[in-house]
Write a structure and sequence with these properties.
- It contains nine helices and two strands, in the order βαβαααααααα.
- The chain is mainly alpha-helical.
- The protein folds into two domains: 105 residues, no CATH class; 37 residues, no CATH class.
- Strands 1-2 form a two-stranded parallel sheet.
- Helix 1 links the parallel strand 1 and strand 2.
- It starts with 5 loop residues before the first strand and ends in an 11-residue tail after the last helix.
- Keywords: DNA recombination, DNA-binding, Transposable element, Transposition.
Length: 185
Amino acid sequence: MADIFFLVCDGLKGLPQSVGAAFPDTVVQTCVIHLIRGTFRYAGRQHRDAIAKALRPIYTAVNAEAAAAALDAFEAEWGNRYPAAIRLWRNAWSEFIPFLDYDTEIRKVICSTNAIESLNARYRRAVRARGHFPTEQAALKCLYLVTRSLDPTGTGQKRWTMRWKPALNAFAITFADRMPGSETT
């Protein structure tokens, strides 16, 4: 069975419990970008810049205690005006704080679901444009071509590899007991 280190999700109810039952060692992480966007959904447009500035110390905190203190400060400043935004963060807190246990390199990788959502949107757009496929092979070819079109020259592979090197090194250290090929001799 595959070993899953992280599951970054957008707050879908029941998903953390389901993943915990099937993959007990998996860390379930709420998408930080979704939390921030959710906060803005409750905030007035005139306060967005100030709220963004007040939220930054929460998700850039060095540990869970510092983040909790920053959330308390955020609540003191904005709690009376936007209590639903505070409730959003408090309800997601147990799935937010695992993010803070890791190095910056890993945090950059697990903070958001935006990359996969973008890819899924491109897949949906391509499938919708074609309507139907005569065979499963034709559908798979369509998805393959959409994936290849993300980097038509092939130069993005080098950029992707360089962007992931620090994260892969941090994963190898953090999950040395679970990551194949990271054993030290």
